[in-house]
Amino acid sequence: MRRIITADVQDQSGVLNRITGMLHKRQFNIESISVGKSERDGISKMTFVVEVSDDQKLEQLTKQLNKQIDVLKVKDITEKAIVARELALIKVGGSGQQRAEIQGVINPFRASVIDVSKDSLTIQVTGKPDKIEALIALLRPYGIKELARTGMTAFLRGYQPQEVTEINSHLV
Amino acid sequence: MNVEAEQELRQMKKEVTGADLLIQTLTAANVDTVFGYPGGAVLPIYDALYRSDAPFQHVLTRHEQGAVHAAEGYARVTGKPGVVLATSGPGATNLITGITDAMMDSLPLVVFTGQVASNVIGTDAFQESDVMGITTPVTKYNYQVRDLTQLPRIIKEAFHIASTGRPGPVVVDIPKDISSTLSDVNVEADVDCHLPGYQPNKKPNPLQIVKLADALSRSKKPLILAGAGVIFAEAADELKAFAEKHQLPVVNTLLGLGGFPGTHELSLGMGGMHGSYAANMGIYDCDLLINIGARFDDRLTGNLKHFAPNAKVAHIDIDPAEIGKNVETEIPVVADAKEALDALLERETAVHGHDTWLETLHQQQTDYPYWYDRSEKFISPQWLTEQVYQLSDGEAIVTTDVGQHQMWAAQYYPFAKPNRWVTSGGLGTMGFGFPAAVGAQLGAPDELVVAVVGDGGFQMTAQELSVIKEKQLPVKVVIVNNQSLGMVRQWQETFYEERYSESIFPENPDFVKLAECYGIRGMKAEQESELTEVLEKAFAYDGPIVIDCRVVQEECVYPMIAPGKGLHEMIGVTR
To answer: Whole-model pTM?
Structure first.
């Protein structure tokens, strides 16, 4: 099952290596990781998209993350009301008439063309990963020359229908 | 300028080097022993040590691996963090086995490594190694000092992290420019140790304690599985009180031995691959398994499908990540073992009379004890271990490597008290036992320390004979010499149709001469008839001694659970 997990971590050197090393050592399958500064000084926010086989594995993952000394807080937000976004840059081949056609394809996705050259154009799209997957699939016939994705970043919406339980809080 | 003048000048300027700061901080942390080995990148630190009147001793081992294992032995018997100092590059990489060993067995270590100067880090400089990268997966935490002013805080945090919660090794990597730079940092200043992401939970959740007590009151076949967590939490007395109060049988893990008296009537001894029949059947048949500070290691559980199939599992552990990792747990208690046992003892829990259960287990103990065929002529290794037990009145600190001799020591040397059993469990490190005995003896100078080692393992770290000679440490090295790698040989006999591939030593040194060569007394026992006298003399001798005991090569450790089998499928339970 696919889970979205966020972690607040101390912005120390080596913290990313420490966490990815642990995930690798314990054979967790990571789809994406995104890291960046958070609203607090010295604290970064990480968002993981992971593929785990069962609840026991998931529990181990969150516990092992929590055990890291640089990790302050871990949340599994998969089933919460969240905002989740990913950004992708897609360079496709195209000139002349094809350009207009591509423009037509990307419009409903609210994607934009951010670079144009003689025989290619670069599209920027943001959204949930499935939206990005859909756009990539539509653009594939035009010949994707280059593709870069940031991985998902996410957090809880301001309003939650039900109370949020933090992972592991029931264990203590 | 002479040394004194230079020092005076520094004092006038209130200037110290990073190395001075390190020595002062270690002194302030009440460190009494540092195990180490000098080298280029730690020259400033060794110079500061030379200049200082630090109240701690430095023990110069003859290999960095010896230093780190000695620190582990020291930590195991004293409960205090073992402190290690080594140089960059090969000095640091030689420590890795010991650091990993300490990580697996949760031993508190603070390891200082030198590093090349900051401005050349990352350039593949002479004796540079990526200590942070290499040690990240095998440490509880690690630091590289980038700013001298941070050094006191880092050291304080390192000791705090190593010795609290679930203990473990912490590495502090110190670049040479940091240790040699002059600074006016005031060490006395109260440094802040602020670790918001590290708050081990010591107090148990009262609700979980109620649940556990309820389960206990409903249980007809309860059993305690006690691991090393009991020893780290200094909860041996509480465990004994709890077991006695409710008449609960106790199984110890390999590393938990001594946490509950092995001679107690409620003790079933060790569980697991080479554990006692009663212990393993106890785990298999119980209806409530109370795990206190053990991590359900595979050598204990055997095939998980058959592990405690009828039991409700309660697990008390300071490390939440251990709960539910291998065995599904109904009652998780994240707490220090002592605090949890105190909370359980405070309650008046009405417990079922489980006399029949205890009777069954006692009957199994009587019917299926550990057994061996005594060879009468040559020395049986099991009998050797029993002799070591008898002649040391069961009071010795025993260290071992890994393998047959280790299992026999675990079976035939029941420990009455904690902190006397020093063995490499999780990592299973050959060459651990002898240097660990060096550290154990330094940590407990008045105790009898016996290093029970194999002829294979001893040869991996035998260079530390220099240290026991130099420091006149009265360590008794008992070599269980079967001229082979006994456990490898045993597995080849059992599972590889007796193809003894590279497990029999065609040549071994004369261990008596080897000892003598280091200026240490050596003795040999080849016949059973001479063993007792040799051991008596050796134990009575006030100094280091090596005893080469020639034992039967073909002996196997029984009983045994073959890999992939469950605890109820022991082989070699009887003759």
So the answer is: 0.94
